[in-house]
UniProtKB/TrEMBL annotation:
PROSITE patterns in the cross-refs: PEPT_TRNA_HYDROL_2 (PS01196)
Broad class of where this protein is predominantly found: cytoplasm
GO biological process, one term: rescue of stalled ribosome
Record-annotated site: Stabilizes the basic form of H active site to accept a proton: D91
Any GO CC annotation of this UniProt entry: cytoplasm
CDD domains reported for this sequence: PTH
UniProt site (Discriminates between blocked and unblocked aminoacyl-tRNA): N9
Entries under SUPFAM superfamilies matching the protein: Peptidyl-tRNA hydrolase-like
Top-tier EC class: hydrolase
Name the UniProt record assigns to this protein: Peptidyl-tRNA hydrolase
Length: 189
């Protein structure tokens, strides 16, 4: 079993924030792969399903971004899983908008959701880094991260999320390179 966690903040006012791209990814993956109903569990919302041959639990922590690690750690403890069974979908300032990169471990780059998970589990979990681009100056970062996607970005956002859901089987099988490559190819179409 794998646990895929999308990072975000709960509530409708945050729904289209760039910081909520992890929640958006979970929602699109769940719909594309006919996951079960949403349940309240592990201080968050979960949906269970299969992607390819792999059983996957999608988790959206309801703890707000800065406390995401509490929810994630609770789920891993319940299923007696190690951090290598965890994949975290999150926004990444240091990637161009709509670029997707996967890696295990790495720095936190000031991301409080990652910091919280790192505090509870250590750094050795897989991350799907979803580019939101940098606004150009550090004084504009908070407004950019906590701002809604613009109407002009919605087509690219939908294309990227759809590509991630379509290629999710590669991620489930552990072929991160194929997942990244195929998502990039779909973004070029």
């Amino acid at each position: 079993m794998q646990i895929w966690t999308g990072l975000g903040n709960p509530g409708p006012r945050y729904a289209l924030h760039r910081h909520n791209i992890g929640f958006m990814a979970c929602d699109v993956i769940a719909e594309a792969h006919d996951f079960g109903p949403v349940q309240k569990k592990f201080q968050g919302w979960v949906q269970e399903g299969r992607i390819g041959r792999e059983k996957v639990l999608l988790l959206k922590p309801a703890t707000f971004m800065n406390e995401s690690g509490r929810s994630v750690a609770e789920a891993l403890r319940f299923y007696k899983l190690e951090p290598d069974a965890l994949t975290v979908f999150h926004d990444e300032l240091d990637l161009a908008p709509f670029k997707v990169k996967v890696r295990v471990g790495g720095g936190l780059a000031g991301h409080n959701g990652l910091r919280s998970i790192n505090q509870h589990l250590g750094p050795d979990f897989r991350r799907v880094r979803i580019g939101i681009g940098h606004p150009g100056h550090k004084d504009r970062v908070t407004g950019h991260v906590l701002g809604n996607y613009a109407k002009a970005e919605m087509d690219d956002l939908a294309t990227m999320l759809g590509a991630m859901a379509s290629e999710a089987a590669w991620l489930a099988e552990g072929d991160d390179a194929r997942f990244m490559n195929d998502v990039a190819l779909r973004m070029q179409d």
